[in-house]
Amino acid sequence: MNQPTQSTEPAPSGGFLAEIKDAVTARAAVLVLGVLALQLAFITSYIGAFHHPRPSEIPIAVTAPLAPVAERSADQLGTLPGKPLDPHAVKDEAAARRQIENRDVDGALIIDPAGKTDRLLVAGGAGAALSQALEQVVGLAEKAQGRTVRVTDVAPSAAGDGRGLSSFYLVVGWCVGGYLCAAILAISAGARPANIHRAVIRLAALLLYSIAAGLLGAVIAGPVLDALPGSIAALWGLGTLVVFAVGSITLAFQGVAGVVGIGLAILLVVVFGNPSAGGAYPYPLLPPFWRAIGPALPPGAGTYAARSITYFKGNGAGGPMLVLAAWAVAGSAVTLACAVFRRGRSGAAVGSGLPDDSPSVPRFADTEGGTGAEGAGAR
Q1: Per residue, what are the HEC states of 264-298?
Q2: Whole-number pLDDT of residue 15
Q3: With left for phi above 0 and alpha for psi between -120 and 50, is residue 366 left, alpha or beta?
Q4: What DSSP string describes 214-267?
């Protein structure tokens, strides 16, 4: 008796539209649209911040042998069209140099009433674009008065630190490592939504990664590439704080919004943080919006602190370090709070194909009865 044979022909599909629905879910389509929006925001932010740099209220000290001369010159510089400078008179050249070293000002004009040539002190380590802008603005102002200016760089960037950008790129690298490490910890295949224990473990793993990343980044930028001559220990500490702050922010966003939270972290750190960081163009050259938000975001705080450590003996780094510490504490607190809120809701593992609020499914489920060895025994 012939046994009926099973057909090996594939079951008829529901047509091309059904194939599209199977290939691209509604959730995936929404996420793709989110990526497009993020991409356009990236383009807009970078071009918007960098396409027309213009000096605005660059702090500068002015001094002369006679106080009235210094005050009069400062007043004249303060009335330049567009207000490119924010000048104030100081007692003498020593006071002006101290203010540059403390990062209270970005330059100083030393006036010589007995001659026709004055001196301009700049700090190339704070960014080549900034010192060049000072040279141009002060040079034009001096020329209008029938005078000339001689420029002296009192905090020059290192030979291996082209245009003073190495600090910025080092911090960008640390930021990238922070949010990628956090993303991997949170959404790699098999990972489950954080309960309080998983949240603590992920924060601890992130801290260990941050320590390693901070050290290796400082060593590469310092002894290996000879780009940044600052203290390795100080840069190591800064790098650890930058990586952990960005990573904890990413874990916090992921805890609040799931996978979408990683996009929110990129929006904050990359789209808003990098253009406003003062890397290619320091704060006084950025448009008002970017100049306002830059010091409050991790890339900006990290870049300013890295330059302070490298070229200004750490002066001015305290405020940015507090900003980074605040982000680290806030990110950790929100991550732990989200884990506590989820208590009792285990969720499905990433990559299981189940919604986040689905109950956990045993790894070796048997559809006919029992699981694993129990199911085999039942059969």
Answers
A1: HHHHHHHHHHCCCCCCCCCHHHCCHHHHHHHHHCH
A2: 74
A3: beta
A4: HHHHHHIIIIIT----S-HHHHHHHHHHHHHHHHHHHHHHHHHHTTHHHHHHHI
Q: How far apart are CA 97 and CA 138, in angstroms?
A: 17
The backbone torsions φ and ψ at residue 334, rounded to the nearest 5 degrees and listed phi first, read: -65, -40
φ, ψ for residue 90 (rounded to 5)?
A: -130, 170
Q: Which one-letter DSSP state was computed for residue 363? A: T
For residue range 156-215, list pLDDT tens digits in order. Answer: 999 999 999 999 999 999 999 999 999 999 887 445 566 888 899 999 999 999 999 999
- List, for residues 52-66, the tens digit of each pLDDT value: 999 999 999 999 999
Cα dihedral across residues 240, 243, 246, 248: positive or negative = negative
User: Shortest CA distance to 349 belongs to which of 193, 183, 184?
Assistant: 193
Lookup: tokens for 212: 């390693």
> Two tokens at 222?
């310092």
Cα–Cα distance between 89 and 87 in angstroms, integer? 7
Angular region, 163: left φ>0, alpha ψ -120 to 50, beta rest: left
Which residue type sits at 124? G
Supply the pLDDT for residue 59: 98
Length reported for the chain: 379
The C-alpha atoms of residue 275 and residue 290 are separated, in whole angstroms, by: 7
Could you tell me which residues come within 8 angstroms of residue 165 by beta carbon, excluding any fewer than 6 positions away? 279, 280
Give the span between the Cα atoms of 128 and 11, in whole angstroms: 67
User: CA torsion 307→310→312→314, rounded to 10°?
Assistant: 90
Structure tokens at 161: 């630190």
Give the integer Cα–Cα distance in Å for 256 and 131. 43
Mean pLDDT of the region 351-356: 46
Q: What is the DSSP letter of 350?
A: T
CA-nearest of 27, 68, 46, 12 to 271 is: 46
Instruction: Check residue 242 and give its pLDDT.
Output: 98
Of the candidates 72, 65, 117, the one whose C-alpha atom is nearest the C-alpha of residue 92 is 65
pTM of the model: 0.85
